[in-house]
Design brief:
Blueprint lengths: L2 H9 L1 H28 L3 H31 L30 H24 L5 H28 L4 H39 L1 H14 L20
Length: 239
């Protein structure tokens, strides 16, 4: 349903550059969080997998940044203003919403699995709407291979760490992600509705006030108003 919207969003060169740069920052930040998860876990296998995962995230950030730089060389970005549609085209894993130090291995794996699964789904859509930009499409294609591996290893390790309760952890992580999706959509819709209300107020409420102000101005005399001498009070005192 959102494929036509995504095609329109990514068709603009300026928006494409801005989104690739944001994706680069998000992937790099996610790599730092996963690197921290490798430091705090006591599981040697998870530590090795987390390190490989973090390296992949850093490499993804470099790929996005280099592609954005290449697009800037061809067509310099004119402006950062305008509709970006960030809430419609999320690119991150949302690790900034997770307290890595306070999470157990099972919660971390469940969160990572759902995040990687969602990222793979989004990047598939972004890749499919990039027929007009083969190099950017190739970047998403390369990253998708890593996302698939991340999605599979996190589920496998979650089943190993919590063989009986791994589904419960997945459902808890799903509910948390649904709440964050709701907040993201609510933020985007509130911005749109706020702009609409301000526009309506400007064109509906302001004209009557302007008309009343002009009408009152026409009734007032221009220049100084002469006061009759008999009507003025003594100026010998202040009150």
């Amino acid at each position: 349903m959102l494929i036509p919207v995504q095609r329109w969003i990514w068709s603009d060169a300026d928006r494409r550059v801005q989104k690739l740069l944001r994706f680069s920052e998000t992937e790099t930040d996610g790599g730092r969080d996963i690197l921290r998860a490798a430091e705090v876990t006591s599981d040697p296998l998870l530590r090795r997998l987390y390190l490989e995962h973090a390296i992949d995230e850093f490499r993804h950030g470099v790929l996005f940044r280099h592609r954005a730089a290449a697009l800037l060389k061809v067509s310099p970005c004119r402006s950062n203003s305008g509709f970006q549609g960030d809430w419609l085209t999320p690119g991150g894993h949302g690790l900034d919403d997770l307290q890595v130090d306070g999470e157990s291995d099972s919660d971390m794996l469940a969160f990572l699995h759902l995040s990687e699964k969602a990222a793979a789904s989004r990047f598939t859509v972004y890749r499919d709407v990039m027929q007009h930009d083969p190099p950017t499409r190739a970047v998403f294609e390369e990253i998708l291979h890593d996302e698939t591996f991340h999605m599979n290893y996190t589920l496998t390790q979650l089943a190993r760490v919590e063989p009986k309760r791994h589904r419960r952890h997945l459902w808890r992580a799903r509910l948390s992600r649904l709440w964050k999706v709701y907040l993201r959509l609510a933020t985007g819709l509130s911005g749109i509705l706020g702009s609409m209300l301000l526009t309506i107020q400007y064109f509906v409420l302001l004209p009557p006030f302007a008309w009343l102000a002009k009408r009152a101005a026409r009734r007032e005399l221009s220049g100084w108003t002469i006061v009759s001498p008999g009507g003025s009070e003594s100026l010998d005192r202040q009150y």
